[in-house]
Amino acid sequence: MSQIIDEYVSLLTPRAQGAIKGVARLDIEGEGSVMLDETGARAGAEEADVVLMARDEVFRAILSGDQNPVTAFMTRKLKVEGNAQRALKVSAILVGEG
């Protein structure tokens, strides 16, 4: 597991615990994937109800609040596969509003 994936897992575990229904996956271009579910975050590339895909810089900007996830999606910096409502819930967790 890369150091970048470790950072995401550490940051997102407390945000995701008890805040997400189903399973979400963040695909970080060139780095790997992080799975999110009600137990927290972990490294992995399993099946998910919704998948968010972006470069590391885009996810970091979303996590810090410098990038609105909806704007990132509209400008094609963030791609989504799966349920749009779940993607919105995951984006709320990413920005710390989950």
CATH homolog superfamily? SCP2 sterol-binding domain
Helix residue percentage: 40-55%
Instruction: Write the CATH fold name.
Output: Nonspecific Lipid-transfer Protein, Chain A
Q: What's the overall average pLDDT, rounded?
A: 94
Q: Note the run of SSEs as H and E.
A: HEEEEHHEH
Just name the CATH architecture.
2-Layer Sandwich
How many structural units, i.e. domains?
1
Note poorly predicted spans: none
Going across the biggest sheet, name each strand in turn: 3-2-1-4-5
Task: Using brief descriptors, characterize the structure shown.
98 residues; alpha+beta; Nonspecific Lipid-transfer Protein, Chain A; five-stranded mixed beta sheet; 4 helices; 5 strands; 41% helix; globular
